[in-house]
Amino acid sequence: MRSLTLRPTGMPKVAISFQTGSRFLVASAWTWACVALSESYEALVEGLQRALWALGGVPRKLTLDNMSAATHELKKARGRSLNKRFADACTHLGIETVRRINVGKSHENGAVEVRHRRTKKLLKQALILRGSRDFASVEDYERFVQQTLEREHNQHVTAKLELESPLLRPLPIKPVPTYTTETPKVRRWSTIKVRGRIYSVPSQLIGHQVEVRLHANEVELRYGGEVVETFPRLRGEGAHRIDYRHVIASLVRKPGAFPNYCFREELYPSLIFRRAYDALERARPGRGHVDYVRILHLAAMTMESTVEAELAQLLEAGAPFDYATVKQRVQPTESEVPQLEVGEPDLGVYDELLGGAA
Fold first, then answer.
1. 175-185 confidence digits (pLDDT tens)
2. pLDDT tens digits for range 300-326
3. 305-337 b/e with 16+ CB inside 10 Å = b?
4. What average pLDDT does the structure give for the chain?
5. N- or C-end of the chain: fewer Cβ atoms within 10 A?
């Protein structure tokens, strides 16, 4: 079996090969693939387990390269060794032996590398026939990859795979959790730092310790055992994700902090908001940021799309505007309900009606 984790151009790849008994499953060369947006422990274990569950069994031996998600460098011995966490995951899955190729010796895992090259060729041809490389989501792309492999390769090796399947060990009752837990404390700027990346969180959590579950492609924020929010996992050194809704409550109380805010560029939800800020600064130099912060707070408290539409109209008109103008257009003053005086009904009228009918 060959388990390949494909990736977009420029992203790392993870190549894994499996053995049963004393030989590779070279007879069938069954192939499975998924998208990995980064080379992390979480992505590795998730992809490995999905491959095993798709296969329906566990090989006794695993061969992989020296990726940092599974191995670490031994400074004294000048080599590499398995990370304890990944070794424990393999033990739980029932993999008896994990073999690593030597550093810089990719030919030692040549069977997987050849299968990887052929898989990319299959996908390239399938994309040409499809006529487009655009996909609505990562899930749609991954589904396309798996269907292509199943149609162009796996369905042709079914008979050989049936001969090799009895050599596989049964799957464990439960898979290994594919997330890493951290417990950072929310700083006074309504942010947390996780793996060197900065995420904003709701301002109500300032000063509290929260639970963060790092999955392969997303970050799950928890507090008090409940999920507060889920957002995409950041990649790259020094990356940050700031949601203006998390920090605007603090900024609206101290709008003077806005011009020097280190993540100020994140507080422009769209180009319309950026243009509005520039227009406010031109109209009121040195004070336009006060109106902008209030407008941003209005967007957070109402509907961002509504505020954006009103700003677009004001910018198109070219006339000066301020926070009061935008608020009046977004939340117009309700007209007063007129007070009506209703007189007390004369019940004798009903008596006359009843008497006339008799």
1. 999 999 999 99
2. 999 999 999 999 999 998 888 899 999
3. eebbebbeebeeeeeebbbeebbebbeeeeeee
4. 84
5. C
Q: Kindly provide the b/e burial profile for residues 117-139, where b requires at least 16 CB atoms within 10 angstroms of the residue's own CB.
A: ebbeebbeebeeeeeeeeeeeee
At 356 the pLDDT is 59
Task: Decide the pairing of beta strands 31-35 and 2-6.
Answer: parallel
User: How many helices, marked H, and strands, marked E, lie in the chain?
Assistant: 11, 15
- Contact predicate 266/242, CB 8 Å: yes
Who's near 13: CB < 8 A, 6+ residues apart?
Answer: 4, 5, 6, 7, 36, 39, 116
Region 86-114 average pLDDT: 80
Check if the beta carbon of residue 2 is closer than 8 Å to that of residue 112. Answer: yes
Between residues 275 and 23, the one the model is more confident about: 275
Which of 109-113, 155-159, 247-251, 349-353 shows the lowest mean pLDDT across its residues? 109-113
- Candidates 231, 234, 233; CA nearest to 245 is 231
The values of phi and psi at residue 305, to 5°, are -65, -35
Which residue(s) pair with 74 in the sheet?
79
Give the pLDDT score at 163.
85
pLDDT band at 297 (very low <50, low <70, confident <90, very high): very high
Q: Which residues contact 66 (CB under 8 A, 6 or more apart)?
A: 80, 100, 101, 103
Q: Are 200 and 241 in contact (CB under 8 A)?
A: yes
Rounded to whole angstroms, how far apart are CA atoms 48 and 42? 10
pLDDT exceeds 60 at position 328: yes
The closest alpha carbon to 67, from 43, 50, 89, belongs to 43
CA angle 95, 99, 100 (to 5 degrees): 135
187-207 in b/e form (b: 16+ CB < 10 A) is eebbbbebeebbbbbbbebbe
89 exposure class (CB count in 10 Å sphere: 0-12, 13-18, 19+): buried
